[in-house]
Amino acid sequence: MRYWAPVLLAIAVALGAVQIVSSIALRGSAEPGSWVRLVPETLALRVERIDPAFPLPAPVRLVLAQRAIDENDPARAEAELAKVPESRDRLALEGRLAQARGDAAGAVRAYLAADDLEDIELQVGALARDRNLAAALALQHATIARLEADPTQADALARAYFALGRLEETQAYAFWVGTPQRNAHEVAAGAAYARAVALAPLEERYLIAYANQLLNLDRFGDAERAFLRARDADPTSADPFAGLGELAHRRGDEQAARAYLARARSLDAHDEAVLRLARELGA
Question: Nearest 5 degrees, angle CA 41-CA 44-CA 48?
Answer without folding.
Answer: 135
